[in-house]
Amino acid sequence: MERLQKVIANSGYCSRRKAEELISLGKVYVNGRKVTELGTKVNLNDAIEVNGNILKLEEDKVYYLLNKPRGVISSVNDELGRKTVVDLIDTDKRIYPVGRLDYDTTGILILTNDGDLANNLMHPKNGIEKKYVAKLNRFFMIDDLKKLEKGIEIDGVKCIPTRVKIKTNNKEKDYSIVEISIIEGRNHIIKKVFMKLGYLVDKLTRIEYVFLNLNGLKSGEYRKLSIKEVKKLYEYKK
Hints:
Layout: E1 2-3, H1 4-10, H2 16-24, E2 28-30, E3 33-34, E4 41-42, E5 48-50, E6 53-54, E7 63-68, E8 96-97, E9 106-112, H3 115-122, E10 130-136, H4 142-150, E11 152-154, E12 157-159, E13 163-170, E14 175-182, H5 189-196, E15 201-209, E16 212-213, E17 222-224, H6 227-234
Parallel strand pairs: 9-15
Antiparallel strand pairs: 1-4, 2-3, 2-5, 5-6, 7-9, 7-17, 8-9, 10-14, 10-15, 11-12, 13-14, 15-16
């Protein structure tokens, strides 16, 4: 017996958090009966229906690493009809992105149908470090670098980068490129941090996700993660 939200996530239909939301909204039926209680136990012989779809259980797990291009939505589908990251992956599995990158942000994104792994990677306590390169709209002041290293308060919570490095600082052309690594995953957090210091982010790319990088992947390209890489990602669960 397994918890219903875990079974839904493991089927590849959505993440565990999304499954919990669907259960609470009354969108899930087990053997024809509506279930709204989180933690309800089911087994693989039960007929589970989500949003009118009968789930196929025990689907083979797949794992992809995508170099997300600009102008693509980090979602399974988009009500405005825009291209999504799922559209870029050639698979018949029901995959979804682990976390998200903004519409105009590029770089590393993992897509999978493994709800357990997705949940682990998105949970704040597991300390998943992500490295970004940000092109800023003006020269970056050294005083601001010191402020950034100490942490910037955003919406009442301090964001403290694990590492910060100035890659380019062009006073004549008035722009800078800063490399910044963080653990947390609040929406737009990199842009908000720099905005708090008085800078706009003209371009943002996620170049590393823990030990994974973009080596060999052009914009819009993807590859499957190896078994070794998947096992290593699972090791980050605390």
